[in-house]
Amino acid sequence: xxxxxxxxxxxxxxxxxxxxxxxxxxxxxxxxxxxxxxxxxxxxxxxxxxxxxxxxxxxxxxxxxxxxxxxxxxxxxxxxxxxxxxxxxxxxxxxxxxxxxxxxxxxxxxxxxxxxxxxxxxxxxxxxxxxxxxxxxxxxxxxxxxxxxxxxxxxxxxxxxxxxxxxxxxxxxxxxxxxxxxxxxxxxxxxxxxxxxxxxxxxxxxxxxxxxxxxxxxxxxxxxxxxxxxxxxxxxxxxxxxxxxxxxxxxxxxxxxxxxxxxxxxxxxxxxxxxxxxxxxxxxxxxxxxxxxxxxxxxxxxxxxxxxxxxxxxxxxxxxxxxxxxxxxxxxxxxxxxxxxxxxxxxxxxxxxxxxxxxxxxxxxxxxxxxxxxxxxxxxxxxxxxxxxxxxxxxxxxx
Length: 399
Ligand code: ATP
Ligand code: MG
What we know:
The chain is of the alpha/beta class and 399 residues long. The chain is built from 14 helices and 15 strands. Strands 1, 2, 3, 4, 5, 6, 7, 8 and 9 form a 9-stranded mixed sheet that branches. A 6-stranded mixed sheet has the order 14-13-10-11-12-15, sandwiched between helices. The two termini are 39 Å apart. Magnesium ion binds at residues 184, 186, 343, 345.
């Protein structure tokens, strides 16, 4: 027989008392959106579990998608069958053959007390059947088995549960409000976005483009990164592309080269704050990491950050580059991030940027020109892309 449903266990939600309903409903909604392509699935929500009923859908692709849904602590593929122990035994054999590992444990719960045999007896009977019918060398291990199969004998049916699969953890995306992610096309910012979403925060992205100095490859890269982040959210993610060229050139015309990077980043922050306000984002998120480059020393951060009131969250601020790369690889953004491209920051990189820029000097250079008007122009001329399933369809597919 094939698996017919998936049992989902909630993560940290259990500690959330009154807010629990909001969390579980959001998790249900996000799961439905993430699994939207499997039209036959149906769902059930109870106090402490969610059931995804497969209705004939293959389990593997559903499992792959569920692994990315934040707010899920763990889940198990399950088989519901008539109350026939022979059928349960056959399913247990199949589970043990299909899972890697050589040690196993059968854990039977018998809530239907009329069913013959104690839980222990049933465990032994099923284990005996497994030894006789499985091809691989097996051992029972009751403390730390590679494969734990749960058998529940209830009034209505027998339920057999496959080995527990670890979920993505965190909170359902959206329960924690919305943030604006500064998405550059580098390695760090997608990781920062992923870590933020994991805490249940929804994201919109902002990308600064400097055409003709940056080209469509750079933009495509950012779209592809946002598309990966989408796999961890709820099917849709917005990318605001800011035309930054005029403001950037004005910065370079009016500042000493050593301060160009500092002032440029102050401008980015100003544009972001306005965009965040306009789009209901409560905080900014970026991929800054202490000491990584001149603009990310503590002096730089303080001088850059002073221009806005909106809080800035920096999820990778204390991670080493290698630690960030590990996460990027795991979440599937690394290969996109290392594609060669021109970023608006890299094109205009000064030869000797100030590593200890002061607020006083930054303000002095900024007083040379009317940057407010240029900042507003950036905000007004933003191009907003909505990345969802239909975004990548070519026109042909619509006919
Ligand atoms: P890497 O160091 O791997 O290039 P990065 O691009 O994230 O990663 P920086 O260029 O030093 O690093 O920028 C620091 C942060 O500023 C980025 O993580 C990102 O959040 C933001 N940022 C930089 N350039 C842009 C851009 N063109 N558009 C939007 N955000 C940007
Ligand atoms: Mg970069």
